[in-house]
Amino acid sequence: MDGGLESSATAIGQAWAGELVQTLRADDREVVGPWPGTMSEARMRILASLRMKLDTKHLDQLARIANLAARRGWEEVSETDPER
């Protein structure tokens, strides 16, 4: 896989987590619990951001990279859910 696309997928995931955290904080909501994102959302974000034709295999690989990057970003700032 293209290293540039992998870097882009990582950046997409980091931005995704940042956007969600920012939205929650702007609404005075806590950043709590596990990463709420899904692979479907990750695929959508990859397609919307890269705007290129990708076969299913490459799309799934990039979505996994984005989702993992988002999860790492989320976990850096999220707190454990006290109800779990």
Task: Summarize the structure in words.
By secondary structure, this protein is mostly helical. The protein has one domain. Helices cover 69% and strands 0% of the residues. The protein is built from 3 helices and no strands. Helix 1 packs across helix 2 and helix 1 crosses helix 3. The N and C termini lie far apart (38 Å). 20% of the residues are buried.
Largest sheet: none
Strand content: under 5%
**What number of structural domains do the residues give?**
1
On the 0 to 100 scale, the average pLDDT is: 94
Note the total helix count.
3
Gyration radius, to the nearest Å? 14 Å
User: Alpha-carbon distance between the termini?
Assistant: 38 Å
DSSP summary, beta strand count:
0
Order of helices and strands: HHH
Overall form:
elongated
The proportion of residues forming helix, as a percent range, comes to 55-70%
Estimated structural class:
mainly alpha
- Spans of at least 5 consecutive residues with low confidence: none
Concise description?
It contains 3 helices and no strands.
Relevant terms:
84 residues; mainly alpha; 3 helices
